């Protein structure tokens, strides 16, 4: 069982420039890294130009990895993917590694009781690109 926790520290917004904000993600526990389609981030950025419900911006200040050290993968950079569907807010923490490219490393909310299967997660990524209007909000933070 993966006991890694990722605490993402973001720079405060315009109203809270002094205050840091953070989200805590539970590390995913799959036998093999869950690779995100290589074109996902680029395609989402293109969609954001046409859809006002898709926001993309830079705001990650620091990523703290807490708990047992299970993986030796070096993460080059991180992306937070937050989305809302039917008033249900969820999110994924994506890390980029040299060997695997973009991989899913964490899920939010931290206390989420339902464990998603790989197929369910891939279906969400597919829907984010192919049915973005079904989502209330989509936000990519890097």
Question: Helix amount, in percent?
Answer: 10-25%
Q: Specify the structural class.
A: alpha+beta
Q: Shape from CA axes? A: globular
N-C termini distance: 28 Å
**In percent, how much strand structure appears in the residues?**
35-45%
Give the uncertain stretches in residue-range form: none
User: For this entry, what is the oligomeric state of its chains?
Assistant: single chain
Number of strands: 9
Rg on CA atoms, Å: 15 Å
Mean pLDDT: 86
Can you put this structure into words, describing what you see?
- This protein has 142 residues and is of the alpha+beta class.
- It has a domain of 98 residues.
- The chain has two helices and nine strands; from the N terminus they run E-E-E-H-E-E-E-E-E-H-E.
- Strands 1, 2, 3, 4, 5, 6, 7, 8 and 9 form a nine-stranded mixed β-sheet that branches.
- A hairpin with a 3-residue loop joins strand 7 and strand 8.
- The longest helix is centred in the C-terminal third of the chain and has 13 residues.
- The radius of gyration is 15 Å and the shape is globular.
């Amino acid at each position: 069982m993966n006991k890694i926790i990722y605490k993402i520290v973001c720079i405060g917004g315009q109203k809270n420039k002094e205050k840091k904000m953070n989200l805590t993600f539970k590390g995913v526990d799959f036998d093999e890294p869950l690779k995100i389609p290589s074109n996902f981030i680029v395609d989402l950025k293109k969609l954001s130009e046409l859809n006002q419900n898709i926001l993309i911006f830079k705001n990650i200040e620091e990523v703290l990895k807490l708990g047992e050290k299970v993986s030796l993968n070096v993460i080059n950079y991180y992306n937070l993917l937050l989305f809302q569907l039917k008033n249900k807010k969820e999110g994924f923490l994506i890390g980029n590694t040299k060997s695997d490219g973009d991989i899913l490393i964490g899920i939010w909310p931290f206390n989420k009781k339902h464990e998603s299967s790989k197929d369910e997660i891939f279906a969400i990524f597919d829907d984010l690109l192919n049915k973005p209007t079904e989502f209330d909000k989509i936000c990519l933070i890097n």
